Amino acid sequence: MKKFLAILLALAMAFSLAACGSSAETDSPSPDSGADTGDEIEVDEGLLNVEITIPASFFEFFSELDESFSAESLTAEDMDSRIKDFTVNEDGSLTFTVSKADHADMMAEMRQTILDSLPEMQESVSCLKGLEVNDDCTEITLSVDSAEYDEMYGVFAILSFEIQGLMYQAFNGTSDTPVVVNVVDAATGEVLDSANTEELGQ
Predict the structure, then answer these.
(1) Taking every pair of C-alpha atoms in the chain, what is the biggest distance, in angstroms?
(2) Residue 54 CB burial class (10 angstroms; 0-12, 13-18, ≥19)
(3) What is the spatial order of strands in the sheet that 94-99 belongs to?
(4) Could you tell me the residue range of the domain that residue 7 belongs to?
(5) Same domain? 121 vs 96
(6) Final residue of a domain: which of 100, 128, 154?
(7) What's the predicted TM-score (pTM) here?
(8) Alpha-carbon span 57 to 92, nearest angstrom
(9) Bigger pLDDT: 124 vs 119
(10) E strands along the chain, which residues?
């Protein structure tokens, strides 16, 4: 995945983490509550192409961490070669266009990124033994050593994979689709914990 897509995924995940954190403290709508907050990724699927708009708030949030970063700072060299064109809109949002075939490839890469995150997650949550992700990233299953499983670390792992699943849905244009994360005993398959992204922000 090229720099541009990696940046988008990173800032989208960071923005979602912040939004989820703030929704737990306030009664304001969460990004996935269905409310029109203007903070959602918009995906317009045409006959041949897919147009994706990243809201200005994503870039504003990320620029607080890195003042040099903004939608305007992105250049053609940052772009994935599959992106046909990109435009920084007047409101600070960014719109880019890819073919439907290339969009499908990008979504497959995003799914693989979720799978590839297991080793890094295992450094923090040592009881994790395996990870399965279905084709459309609506169901993510974490296998753990039940003897070592700690609910506190489990919550951290579950939230991380919920957010990755939500980001897949956002870039896929299926942001209303819930993502289920299950924690199962690697030895027996027994479900030890489960979470559904519909519960976020409630």
Answers:
(1) 55
(2) buried
(3) 42-45, 49-54, 94-99, 85-88
(4) 3-100
(5) no
(6) 100
(7) 0.76
(8) 8
(9) 119
(10) 42-45, 49-54, 85-88, 94-99, 128-133, 139-144, 180-185, 191-196
Q: Which of 144, 53, 51 is nearest to 92 (CA)?
A: 53
Q: What are phi and psi of 58, to 5 degrees?
A: -65, -45
30 secondary structure, DSSP code: P
**pLDDT of 76 over the 80 cut:** no
Residue 184 identity: V
CB 179 within 8 A of CB 193: no
CB-CB contact of 84 with 49 (8 Å): yes
pLDDT at 141 over 70: yes
Residue 159 has pLDDT above 80, yes or no: yes
Q: Region 8-30: what's the mean pLDDT?
A: 48
Domain tally for the chain? 2
Q: CATH no. for residue 118?
A: 3.30.300
Provide the angle, in degrees to the nearest 10, between the axes of the packed helices 3-23 and 56-65.
Answer: 90
Using one digit for the tens of pLDDT, what is the confidence trace for 43-56? 988 889 999 898 88
Do 32 and 48 fall into the same domain? yes
